[in-house]
Design goal:
alpha/beta, 9 strands, binds adenosine-5'-triphosphate, ABC_transporter-like_CS, ATP binding, transport, ATP-binding
């Protein structure tokens, strides 16, 4: 049941640079996530993948260049942060956590009508968590909690969905189930972007790939991107930035 237009929107990066204390984590990246595309972002540790995702959500500003979201506000994007960034010590129930996915539609004090409750229960059913509604989120396994967060995304019904390492430390069965949801989002025309580390998953399920090592090493059809020479270049860049912390000359000049 869709209450907003679920069709994805394109996102264009134009010479995008994002820095932490002048050190670029994302450096001069240009390219497009087409509307309705399904893209994996891969690269070595520290390659700038999470930083790029945060920039797409609008929580990190560009130091240089820009992100063109084709007029769509990033507040409409669905976002799944890395598990380590999610605090689940709050005494929230599974149902309330999922229902929060609907706040943009209901408003903070909107109150849930019968059909809103049904939508939340339906989302929980789709991730296999019927019967867990009143459980505290602190009492779930990592895999169950990830299912809760996917149910919340289902309810949010966002046209653009950003996932940061959604399968980190998640069991095989949960991963398979959640990959099926991602496939459905793609089939319904949403734009989906996921940071991943498992190359076989990327090859099997993601038609497009952006390989990053601070810069975009390659961006396009997955088979073309995952070629040996590209992967080798990404690893070489990782080794070189460890030896020599790089600063962004242009940005330094701006700040001087
Ligand atoms: N808050 C921060 N302050 C300063 N530097 C940061 C901060 N967050 C990340 N960095 C640095 O920016 C670079 C990119 O980090 P980022 O987390 O985007 O990489 P990543 O590709 O997602 O890595 P991983 O695969 O290990 O999660 C790294 O060198 C990291 O140390």
């Amino acid at each position: 049941m869709s209450h907003s237009d679920p069709r994805g929107a394109p996102i264009h990066l134009d010479n995008l640079t994002i820095t932490y204390q002048r050190h670029p984590a994302v450096h001069h990246v240009t390219g497009s996530f087409e509307a309705g595309s399904l893209t994996a972002i891969i690269g070595p540790n520290g390659a700038g993948k999470s930083t790029l995702i945060k920039a797409l959500t609008g929580t990190m500003a560009a130091s240089e260049g820009r992100i063109d979201r084709a007029g769509m506000s990033p507040s409409r994007y669905g976002y799944l942060p890395q598990a380590a960034e999610v605090d689940r010590s709050f005494p929230l129930s599974v149902f309330d956590t999922v229902a929060m996915g609907d706040w943009h539609r209901l408003g903070v004090f909107g109150g849930m009508k019968r059909q809103d409750v049904a939508r939340a229960l339906d989302a929980l059913d789709k991730v296999g968590l019927t019967g867990f509604e009143q459980r505290r989120i602190s009492e779930l396994s990592s895999g169950q909690f990830q299912r809760v967060l996917f149910a919340r995304l289902l309810l949010q019904d966002a046209p653009v969905i950003l996932l940061d390492e959604p399968f980190n430390a998640i069991d095989e069965r949960t991963t398979r189930d959640l990959l099926t949801l991602i496939r459905h989002w793609h089939e319904h025309g949403r734009t989906v972007i996921a940071v991943l580390h498992d190359m076989s998953q990327v090859r099997q399920c993601f038609p497009q790939t952006l390989l990053m090592a601070r810069e975009a090493i390659a961006w396009g059809p997955t088979d073309e991107v995952l070629q040996h020479h590209n992967l080798r270049r990404a690893n070489m860049m990782e080794e070189s930035w460890r030896a020599d912390a790089h600063t962004c000359a242009l940005h330094e000049e701006e700040q001087a």
